[in-house]
Amino acid sequence: MSGERVLKAEAVLLGALVVAVLVWELPSLRREARIWRMAGGLRAGRRYP
Q1: Could you list the residue ranges that cross the membrane (predicted)?
Q2: Is the pTM of this model over 0.70?
C-alpha cells in the first residue's frame, strides 16, 4: 500500500470516528444548549459571575 492510500484511509477512519461521536453526543448537547439558553445565554454573565 502506498503512503498516500494509508493517509487517505486514516483520514476516512478519523472522519467516521468524529461523526460517530457527534451523533452519539447530539442529544446531550441539545439538552445542554437548552439549559444554557434558559439560564440566559451570553447575557447571563452579568447575573452569574
Answers
A1: 12-29
A2: no
Residues present in the chain in total: 49
Q: What string of DSSP letters covers 1-49?
A: --HHHHHHHHHHHHHHHHHHHHHHHHHHHHHHHHHHHHTTGGGGGGT--
Write the CA distances from 7 to 2, 17, 19, integer angstroms: 9, 15, 18
pLDDT at 48 over 70: no
The answer to whether 48 and 39 have CB atoms below 8 angstroms apart is: yes
- Rounded to 5°, angle at Cα 15 from 19 and 9: 145
